[in-house]
Amino acid sequence: MTPPKHRFRPKSITLSSVDEIEPIDENEIPPPCVIGRPIRSPVEKSEISRIFADFLTFNVPKLTAIIYAEFDKDYGPTVRYQVPENKQAISKETFNSFSALILPKEDLLNRMIKVIFKECKIIGHPIGLDCPTYPRGRHIFNMCFIVPKDSSADCMYEPLVQKLNEYLVDMEQECFFLTKRPEDVKGLMNQIFDKVNEKGECVIKVTDLTTMHLRLCPAYRGVEPPVVSLYMVPMLIRKIRTEEYDRIIEKMDVLSQKIIPEIDGVRCVREIAMKVSIDADLVLRCVRNLIFYECVQLVPLLLYANTYVATEKLHPFYHDQTLIQECLDFVGLQGSEVNPKYSDVFRLYLSLRCGMTLRKWVEAYDPRSYGVDERRFIQFGMFHRFLRKLSVYPLAKNRISCTGKLSRACDGTQSIEDLAVAHSIQPEILLELLTESNRFEFICK
Amino acid sequence: LRMEEDDPINRPLAVILVAQREGQSEETLYMYPFTYCDPPTPIPSTPPINRGFPSVPSTGSSIGSMGNALSVLRLGGTSLFGGGGTQPSSGFLNRKEPKEQPRPTIHYPREMYHAQATTMQTTFGISTSMLASILCVKKACLDHVLELKIDNIRFAGYAKQVTAHKRKEDNEMLMIMDEEEEEEDRDDDDEGLEIMRRNRKEEKNEVKNEDDEDIDDETTEEIEDGKMKMKDDDDKSEIEEEEKEGKRKEEIAKISMFGINFILPPNTEQHVICSFQRLAKKLSIAINEMQKQNNYLEDELVVIDQVTNEIEAEANASKMSYASRRPYERIREKSLLCQTLTKVFDDVIETGVVQVFIDRLIDVSFCVESRALRFASLPPRSRADLDRLVSHLRPYHGLILLKDVWPNPDPNPSVALLLKHCTPEKSIIDISAATGIPILQVLLIVRHLLLWARVIIIYPLSNNNVYTSSTFTKAPLVDPTFMSTEWSEDQIANALAFFNPYATLSKFVDPTEVLVEQQVRGRLMTHLLRHQLVMQLHRYYYMMEPSSRYPIGVPKKQLPDSLMRMIKASKLIHFQFEGFVADITALELEKSSYGKVAKKLSLFLILAPLLNGQHHIEDMMYRLNATRKTILTVIDVYSLIIADFLRPDEISALSIY
Question: Where is the signal peptide, in residue numbers (chain A) (predicted)?
Fold first, then answer.
């Protein structure tokens, strides 16, 4: 069996469905920074939350305990130390039941082992050390983190436990830290427990030679970044404080340093690539990376030929006063005397229906007369998922008997944009050609 | 969301049966599917770990590998002290050490854990003995669901304490005559079995002897001597084996626990893990029940032991490894329990619906929702999603059956009756009326059918329904394995193009067509709905301030007090709308009679709380028991302060996304 490539659930996302990615938590989506103007600063959710480049870590369960278990020469597997000391982390019975997993046979040493039982999860990384000075010739130990069962974000602790146990190996090799300095081990555990729970990271100078660096890294909501097309527009979704801008940009790789200043919510990937004169493929990969680290979000290129449709996610907007205010501030036409009214904006959103391109809609409703800039209006809607861009999916008639490459590709799974990219042709021209040939049906999704 | 060929995430990798006998080490009795590694692959010596975990991942790193931080760590770096560039390691290396003091070194296992001669290496990097020792939990954790994660493998299962077989002698006092007779029969049967077994052994011996004799005739005396000795040995071992068996039977009678576990991929979703735990629990309880009644498990163990011993003997004789004899396949041939487990696993993989009989008696049925839905080529959903769907279920909804065949041989009569009356045009109320089953019970049955992935919920077909192509991207449109061959891809494509942008059902069915054609289109519509290629749009209404482009005119006369009092008294309208309502009513009064206006106003006041974008017009019709026309007339009158919105309802939003 080949090990699965991704630990997280990969989601295959097509171009058309990018705007439909279900967020895990609505409140979790960071606000956009459209056309260089951030809409809302990130809301401080918890003490562990951080800003740009340090990555937000939400929903991290707090540690309930840290235990240090080792194989005692007289008693067998025992919990030697635990923090917090006053509270029993796991009952003796439970520990005895799982002692074969916490201090396992040699086959399972040096592996991450997580036991989920009743109310807690025990994450450990058992290690065996060989040395003739040990009573049994071998010292088996495991410093485990215990977290409550209810959260699924606890996988963030897994690398931490692994790293911690490897530090312990180092320190044991250095000065028999584990076997000869029990008070220091307890002190260390207390410090880790307090600092990791408080700040999500700790830097502890344990011995003269070893300084322990531990930090929780976010699980990135477990979503693989979508496939990025050249015609998608990246939008910054993290606010960068002006005073920190240089420092943060400096920390990034060269490619990101060049690309980030060019992201303005209007240019698509291809245009950015042209602007910075870098191969479009490299820019694509960089943008994909930035999506993975939740720095940018993709929005389809605003085209007057596109059709936008209001979705049921518009409903919360009916009541949400802060969002309404934010929207009214954002969608206003610059330099216009008229301030947009909520009832008008809401009606405009409702009026976006299938079967009408943006151009026709603008002609019919004239949003500028309400003081609404339709480009900002659409982008705000796309960002908050009030709107969905419809894509045309061509379907060849008599596909089975078709021999043409294009006809076979038109099986209703690829949108006209995907096909246009594949055949390097403008989407509108392709659509026109296909319509003229009269051999295709079109489905709007 | 595009559906994958076979969703690799929620697909179980194997099922394992482990057990522990009292005073003996744990055993993996059966594992399916099992890939034999012959010769057993030595454990790859674990590469030393790179400790330098990148605490701030650089944007240049590969994305895929970042998703799997642990494996990155395992693979990265070659030297324990070299990687990561953390200060201490280099310091440690540079330090002058007193050479006489030995330093601890990390212990890496060189061989796989080998508790029994029957130990085999699995493809998961853990030997069968090791699996047994980790999955057989101690007493305190028995009768509990179990979940483990070791590196990149997840285990979900249930460990069950075995209840001792209640021999009927123990309950002599309670026995009635009939049962005694049964027992006698049983004893007879047992005796018969014993005789048969003995006969079989004798036969075998005879065959062996004959063979030997045949060979003996052709061979020289020396060899004959040797053969004779071997034969003697054989006889001895035969006797010993028989003795052993007798002993073992007694030992086996004290089996303390067993467990059924599923191996799952690391990224399995939590709800899937829970459903496999539930499945393991169900199976375990049923097996234990049969053990209590018929000594099922212990009998099965005897069978498994027999095969294991045979294979072990064969392996020893031929000096081949135990694994090369494909033990689990031979166990499967003999053991009923292992066959059952195999069927469970295969069913989960294929259909997601398990229906097996433990010991041909206890029926264990289970549905792994996500897999069952995948089988029906629908987007996978969790149990929680289905429960949310149920909470949105209303009596005016209808059903489409996913499959015509009802697999259960003896369903509840009301379920069977309901299924007979289940057509896409009928709502739950209609079904209730047609079958005489109370609505609540119908709803319960629908919930049951939903949880077993048998139906999807729709709004019953009616001419006013508006449909559009659904957002669920499915490829290909015609699934050759599952979809009916009734419709060609072209027909479906044609129909989908018809619903672009959107159209009503009456337009699609076209009442001017001949009746046969209408029926065909109706069936096609059902097909499209069944495969969620189209979704229904409902009309929702919001009460809004009038648009700045179409303000409400100024009425010539003020609204009569009686109507004004009606508005004030209703308290159903937010005060900010009272003025608008009054103005519109006053303007309406200029056009039509007082009676009509008053009637419309009163209906509007009742309707007002529903104009919040949460109720579609069909819901309003159901709640107010009014016709579509009445409601539309009222909405038309007050259209200046009402905005309408066409969107899919919660049911299709939950089903499709």
Answer: none
Unique residue bearing structure tokens 């285990």: B155
Q: Are B399 and B530 in contact (CB under 8 A)?
A: no
Q: What is the mean pLDDT of residues B79-106?
A: 49
| Closest by Cβ to B494, choosing from A152, A344, A441 | A441
What is the average pLDDT across A63-91?
A: 84
> Can you give the pLDDT at residue A327?
85
Report the pLDDT averaged over residues B113-139: 79
Q: How far apart are CA A89 and CA A95, in angstroms?
A: 10
In this model, does residue B347 exceed pLDDT 50? yes
Where is B146: in which H helix or E strand? strand B144-150
Average pLDDT, stretch A30-52?
33
Q: How many whole angstroms separate alpha carbon A416 and alpha carbon A426?
A: 10
Residues of B in contact with A408 (CB under 8 A): none
Q: Residue B26 in contact with residue B19, Cβ under 8 Å?
A: yes
> For residues A364 and A343, what is the distance between their CA atoms, to the nearest angstrom?
18
Best to test chain A binding among B272, B611, B645 (most A CBs inside 10 Å): B645
Q: How many helices (H) and strands (E) does chain A have?
A: 15, 16
| DSSP character at residue A237 | -
- Is the confidence metric ipTM above 0.90 for this complex? no
DSSP alpha helices (H): ranges in B351-382? Answer: 369-375
The two tokens of residue B6 are 């076979």
Q: Quote the pLDDT of residue B252.
A: 47
Query: How many angstroms separate the CA of residue B45 from the nearest CA in chain A?
Result: 11
| Residue B647 pLDDT greater than 50, yes or no | yes
Tokens representing A147 are 């977290």
Helix runs in B146-269, H state only: 177-218, 221-252
Which CATH number applies to A392-444: 1.10.1220, 2.40.30, 3.30.1490, 1.10.10? 1.10.10
Q: Where are the domains of chain A?
A: 15-19+26-39+46-57+220-300, 65-215, 307-390, 392-444
For the stretch A197-212, pLDDT in tens is 887 778 888 888 888 8
How many percent of chain B have pLDDT more than 90?
15
Q: Average pLDDT over chain B, rounded to whole?
A: 74
Sole residue written with tokens 């035969």: B238
The angle at the Cα of B621, spanning B617 to B627, to the nearest 5 degrees, equals 110
Partner residue facing A210 (CB), from B13, B88, B549: B88
Q: Tokens 């018929």, residue?
A: B294
Beta bridge partners of A68: A81, A143
- By Cβ distance, the residue of A225, A342, A445 closest to B63 is A225
**CB B286: neighbour CB atoms within 10 A?**
20
Buried/exposed B579-612: b ≥16 CB within 10 Å, e otherwise: ebbbbbbbbbbeeeeeeebbebbebbbbbbebbe
Contact A116 B106 (CB under 8 A): no
Mean pLDDT computed over B356-360:
86
Partners of B548 in the β-ladder: none
Q: Are residues A209 and B87, on separate chains, in Cβ contact within 8 Å?
A: yes
- What's residue B73's pLDDT? 34
φ and ψ at A128, to 5 degrees?
Answer: -115, 135
Domains and CATH numbers, chain B: 8-43+114-165+255-329 (3.30.450), 373-539 (no CATH), 540-650 (no CATH)
Q: Tell me how far apart the alpha carbons of residues B360 and A325 are, in angstroms, rounded to a whole number.
A: 67
- Burial of B367 per CB tally in 10 Å (0-12, 13-18, 19+): buried
